[in-house]
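Example record for the data management plan.
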Amino acid sequence: MRIGIVSQSYYPRYGGVTEHVHHTALELRRRGHDVTIITSRFREGESTSAAGLERVGYNVMIPFNRAFVDFTVGFHLRSELRRVFRRHEFDVVHTHCPTSPSLPVIAIQTATCPQVATFHTTAPRSFLQDLFQGYLRRTVEKLDARIAVSATARESAEMYYPGDYHVIPNGVDVERFHPGAAPFEEWRDPAYVNLLFVGRLDPRKGIPLLLHAMPDVVRRTNGRARLLIVGDSYLRNRYQASVPASLLKHVHFVGHVPGRDLPRWYATGDVFVSPASGNESFGIVLIEAMASGRAVLASDIPGYRSVVIPEVNGVVFPPGDLPGLADALARLVNDSERRGQLATRGRARALEFAWPRVTDRIEAVYREVLSRRGAVHSAA
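Corresponding structural encoding:
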């Protein structure tokens, strides 16, 4: 098959959608498919195209859903996309985040071949969705098949766009993320148990709650708890400034790290913590941590329930519950045996989300769509 994958989020921008697009493309290519990723330019002077990659327009970041999302701008996006579609003559186009302006919506409106889309977002009703519901519904109705990455992502999509959805989760590279990765030795110290956060420093990710929990966690662990925060945003300086002097040796902001180093950061942590307050459709970072053989602690939100089975392969606490977070962290720091048990079960859980298994299901949707389109054309 000739497959086009459209996504506003792609390298050099890291994130869940980027990883999903990249790894499904790799796996589909391994199976002999001709796959082209269509995204925007993220840097001045960035090449328009490379092997298996087409770039149109330019990316800007805008605040949305208590985070920052990618948005493609350009005066000729529609004509550029038409040229890309004509050049490649795709058998199927797969668009991610199909109701997000601008690139996904324009791509769906422009493509003439069979189309599939994956809904990644979990969010309540919003003014913008209400305002553009009619316009976006006509766009979504052009799709031949819809995928949601979790039950909660499907529920969010169904609020505005009722219909049939395949629930196919995100995946994880279980060979890249594995328990044998080498940690950063400068951050390994028998005097400390490392708590690790990985992600963008967006408000909904729960960093303020985590920082507020640390004084109690440090006290209850006799100073053994140390928090490593991997990720960045314009809020980093504000968060750093909020850390009191007495906690500076227990809280470290690592900042942005190269993607190649991410497995080593997971290996450096002892407990992975994600205190997100909500609007997470799926816990990609949770599966990466589990695949890396790390005990996981996460807020008990619907999207994370797609990955974590409480007290089996992870620990959960009520979202926004400061005492609950502090208590759970302190208990894990003080109980190495429990951490080991959670890590072993977490690795087994992560293997269920290996990319070949996820891609099997996506490929089956493509074949179903093409078969259905072929039957319609034969009957015409």
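Summary line stored alongside the record: The chain is about 40% helix and 20% strand.
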